[in-house]
Amino acid sequence: MLNDLRATDVLANERTFLAYVRTSLAFIAFGFVIARFSLFAREFAAIVPVHPVRESLSTGFGTAMAFVGIIVVILGAYRYARTDRGLKRGKIERLSSIAGYAMAALIATIGGVVSLALLAYK
């Protein structure tokens, strides 16, 4: 019977929200590291002769990663509230397939951009 609100369901919803928060913090921290990578690369270029670093690329991508972190935490808060309301009504709220595919595509795109940027520093 779905109308019974169980502590395990509520706690699982809270753990899921905390996973969203943890993921968003990782995106924000990763964005900061990428944005500051140009400083490291510039100092490294002073020691070892390599081609010049495009500072605006890493700064822009790092800032975009931080914004993705903000979007992830907003999505997590929305999902938490929606699932909590559903639990109280006795309904199961699930993530739509389109949202799942969109998140996977976003992560794959970020991984591809990072990989291409690393290959460019050969």
In total, how many beta strands?
Answer: 0
Helix content: over 70%
How many domain regions? Answer: 1
Sum up the overall morphology in one term.
elongated
Strand content: under 5%
Number of contiguous helices: 3
Low confidence ranges: none
The CA-CA distance between the termini, in Å, is 59 Å
Mean pLDDT: 83
H/E element order: HHH
Given helix and strand content, the structural type is: mainly alpha
Sheet of most strands: none
Radius of gyration: 20 Å
What report would you give on this structure?
The chain has 122 residues and is an all-alpha fold. It has one domain. It contains 3 helices and no strands. Helix 1 runs antiparallel to helix 2. It is elongated and about 65 Å long. The termini are far apart.
Label this structure with key terms.
mainly alpha, about 120 residues, 3 helices, single chain
Briefly, what is this?
The protein has 122 residues and is mainly α. It contains three helices and no strands. It has helices at residues 7-47, 55-89, 97-120.
Topology:
Blueprint: H1 7-47, H2 55-89, H3 97-120
Helix pairs in contact: 1-2
